[in-house]
Specification:
Blueprint (H helix, E strand, L loop, with lengths): L13 H14 L12 H8 L3 H13 L3 E4 L3 E4 L11 H15 L4 H16 L6
Antiparallel strand pairs: 1-2
Helix pairs in contact: 1-3, 2-3
InterPro entries: Tscrpt_reg_HTH_GntR, WH-like_DNA-bd_sf, WH_DNA-bd_sf
Organism: Streptomyces hydrogenans
Protein name: GntR family transcriptional regulator
Length: 129
């Protein structure tokens, strides 16, 4: 099950953070079709956000065809985005790179800027970038 982390200082709407984190879990293979997402109540208890925010995120995921709400049962994954499993060797390489970047004094924003620049360079014009 996915555990949502809300960054209240990041400038990204809370419901979008839930959507993005769910999509990331789908892409990494941490969530698969048939898995149940946490209930709105569980997310509210873990993050102290408004239940309507959770429901808005789940509606957006449902609109995109990634999840489906089943009355009285919860919200379940319908589709996956995953082609990069969590245990990919590339993850280990990226982890080592991130450790090195941090050891050299880069902060989160510096690393994100570098990574985004490299993604743009290599995936320019792709729908995924």
């Amino acid at each position: 099950m996915v555990e949502y982390r809300i960054d209240r200082r990041g400038g990204v709407a809370t419901y979008l953070q839930i959507v993005q984190q769910t999509k990331q879990a789908l892409r990494m293979g941490l969530l698969e079709p048939g898995d149940r997402l946490p209930t709105a109540r569980e997310v509210v208890e873990a993050t102290a956000i408004n239940p309507n925010t959770v429901l808005k995120a789940y509606r957006e995921l449902e609109r995109e065809g990634l999840v489906e709400a089943r009355r009285g049962l919860g919200t379940f994954v319908r589709a996956t985005l995953g082609t990069a499993p969590a245990d990919s060797p590339l993850r280990g390489e990226l982890d080592a790179w991130a450790r090195r970047a941090r050891a050299e004094g880069l902060d989160r924003e510096d690393v994100a800027a570098l990574f985004t620049a490299v993604l743009t360079q290599h995936f320019e014009g792709d729908d995924e970038a």
